From TrEMBL:
This is DinB-like domain-containing protein. It comes from the Bacteria. Residues 21-145 form the DinB-like domain. InterPro entries: DinB-like, DinB/YfiT-like. Coiled coil: none annotated. Pfam families: DinB_2.
């Protein structure tokens, strides 16, 4: 039982950013609003598009983990916003807040402790797999956000 709790604690820590790199909150801290939609030369996306992509993908993984009636968006088109910048500060704040809320809901699933049972409506996935995938996905795109900020001289 102690080992299982250690795993739960480590997964919670991982979803909150882990130890090895900056988390999303740190990657976005102090980002000037006018740079949210900027795309450095030859990069295919803006920070806004990355933030929205993180939100959409995490939401999809969470809903899949909870609900057998959930239908995922069409890949890849519906996972990436077309607009390069948020329509407003409100849209930006709403997206960032939703990422935080969905992450908290993932943490609630972890705390229930059933990490290894197959998700009934899946094809072999477990909560453990979905959590690891969500954390890995976010970390990957957080690194891209930091690179974009560095390229724009805003890190």
């Amino acid at each position: 039982m102690e080992e299982h709790q250690i795993l739960i604690d480590e997964l919670l820590h991982l979803l909150n950013g882990g130890n090895a790199h900056a988390d999303l909150k740190r990657a976005l801290k102090g980002l000037p609003a006018d740079l949210r939609g900027a795309k450095p030369d030859k990069l295919p996306y803006s920070i806004w598009q990355l933030v929205e992509h993180i939100r959409i993908a995490q939401w999809d993984m969470l809903e899949f983990s909870k609900d057998g009636s959930h239908e995922s968006p069409n890949w890849p088109d519906d996972y990436w916003p077309k607009e390069t910048a948020p329509k407003s500060d409100e849209a930006w704040n709403k997206s960032v807040k939703q990422i935080e809320l969905d992450r908290e809901e993932f943490m609630d699933l972890i705390k229930k402790g059933d990490l290894y049972s197959k998700i009934p409506h899946g094809d072999g996935q477990t909560i453990l797999r979905e959590v690891l995938q969500a954390a890995d996905h976010e970390a990957y795109h957080v690194a891209e956000i930091i690179v974009i900020r560095r390229l724009m001289g805003a890190w």
